[in-house]
From TrEMBL:
The keyword Methyltransferase applies. Residues 86-159 form the O-methyltransferase dimerisation domain. It comes from Roridomyces roridus. GO terms for biological process: methylation. Gene3D superfamilies: Vaccinia Virus protein VP39 (3.40.50.150), Winged helix-like DNA-binding domain superfamily/Winged helix DNA-binding domain (1.10.10.10). It comes from the Eukaryota. This is S-adenosyl-L-methionine-dependent methyltransferase.
Length: 453
């Protein structure tokens, strides 16, 4: 079957419109679109994206990738976009491990690779080849032959930025574990298993414990767990998880409404809720060591007014054996369920269901995987925003992070992201009724209420 004659024109139109939307957004803020060579932040870099800019970048990335895949020879695309890209995370890992962004920041105009290598204690010609590959991907820039400098992307990887910790994790544990995906699939015991310790990461490391359990029980690995926690702050910033603070109608809740942030760690999202909606009463619940850290270290420095005004309560919980605080208006679970198999998810949700009042809500804040629709999905899938034609309905490359994270969870702990239908089924089995799926930028929110008997 040939390509419809207008599809290329349609893709070009989408690219042009999306680029203009983004250009206008930048110009409205600082009056200029930032250059890739720039290392000072743009005014928009620290703000949540406007909805039209969020969608524009999804369309732009999806349409550009689809146009290239359409027009280039298929063997060209496979080699460039699938085979060779496996080298990129390992190359970036070199730059992160040797703190090259911080070294280059000392000389913004550029530093010769001989000096960089001397500072790193490594061989200069090999390092130059790594930095040249990364520069060709617009992370770092080669000012002149063998002279490298930071740019708009690489400056995000300074040691002071939580994104560096995320990068070390993704280019380290994730990349290494992913090399054992096929071997894990082929294992007659592990292949069909969803046990967290039957993951590709376990296959790679040879550890009998699930990744997070191993980090927690091994003192030598505590720093790895801390680094992961910092990295998740960087991840949340990159995916604009804080969109939920403004996109969900918290302000419509009754005065002094209670929100239980269940499994919320030290309360990164709860802190943002406390700042944006001071009328809310927050209940932060996680394992004991997280609650101690939250109550004694994090909140006294980042949100002391909430403690002073008695707007936050810290209470440890093991949600596999006990229910959360009873009678809250909203039970908020961010990136909790995707780490566990179905049986454990049901245990968590049933525990919540037991303590809900009739008007309580459950808000699950994670990715909602978009798939090609089937007849069984027609009633619910239509509630997820789809891309304009001729893009793939899920935006393709424009929303690729959901599929990357889905496989990453499989690599780490045998976890998974879920489709809307799968979330709805979980809710029904736990005695919850689906209300709505929310668009929170890159992520989604699936809202439930009590199922009436």
């Amino acid at each position: 079957m040939g390509l419809p004659t207008n599809q290329i024109s349609c893709l070009l139109t989408l690219i042009n419109q999306a680029a203009r939307t983004l250009e206008t957004g930048y110009n409205k803020d600082d009056g200029v679109v930032p250059s890739l060579d720039q290392i000072e932040p743009h005014g928009l870099d620290g703000k949540l994206s406007a909805p039209d800019m969020q969608e524009a970048i999804q369309i732009l990335e999806g349409a550009c990738a689809q146009l290239c895949a359409t027009l280039a020879r298929p063997n060209h695309t496979l080699v460039n976009k699938f085979f060779l890209t496996a080298l990129e995370p390992s190359s970036l890992h070199v730059a992160l491990m040797f703190n090259i962004p911080d070294i280059l920041q000392e000389t913004p105009s550029g530093m010769h690779v001989n000096e960089i290598a001397q500072r790193c204690g490594t061989e200069p010609s090999k390092l130059a080849r790594i930095l040249r590959l990364l520069s060709a991907k617009h992370c770092f820039r080669e000012v002149e032959k063998d002279v490298f400098a930071n740019n708009r992307l690489s400056v995000q990887l300074l040691a002071s930025n939580p994104l560096r910790s995320l990068g070390l994790h993704m280019t380290g544990d994730t990349t290494a574990g992913a090399t054992k995906l096929a071997e894990t699939f082929a294992d007659p015991e592990w292949g069909p298993s969803f046990v967290p310790a039957h993951s590709p990461w376990n296959k790679y490391t040879g550890q009998p414990l699930a990744m997070f359990d191993y980090w927690a029980s091994n003192p030598d690995m505590h720093k790895r767990g801390e680094r992961f926690g910092i990295g998740m702050i960087g991840w949340g910033t990159a995916v604009e998880a804080a969109t939920v603070v403004h996109a969900y109608p918290w302000k419509d809740l009754a005065p002094d409404a209670t929100v239980c942030d269940l499994g919320g760690g030290v309360g990164t999202m709860a802190i943002q809720l406390a700042r944006a909606h001071p009328s809310l009463r927050l209940k932060l619940q996680d394992l004991p060591h997280r609650m101690v850290q939250a109550e004694t270290v994090v909140w006294p420095t980042q949100c002391p007014e909430a403690i002073r005004e008695n707007r936050v309560e810290f209470k440890a919980v093991d949600f596999f054996i006990e229910s959360p605080i009873a009678g809250c208006d909203v039970y908020y679970l961010k990136n909790v369920l995707h780490a566990f198999p179905t049986a454990e998810c049901l245990t968590i949700l049933k525990g919540v269901r037991k303590v809900m009042k009739p008007e309580s809500r459950v808000l699950i804040h994670e990715y909602t995987l978009q798939t090609a629709p089937t007849s069984s999905q027609q009633t619910t899938a239509a509630q997820l925003r789809t891309a304009p034609a001729p893009l793939l309905s899920n935006y393709g490359e424009g929303r690729i992070r959901q599929y990357h994270l889905d496989v990453s969870l499989m690599v780490h702990v045998n976890g998974r992201e879920r489709t809307l239908d799968e979330y709805i089924q979980l809710g029904e089995q736990a005695g919850l009724r689906f209300i709505k799926v929310w668009e929170f930028g890159d992520l989604s929110g699936v809202e439930f209420c009590v199922e009436e008997n």
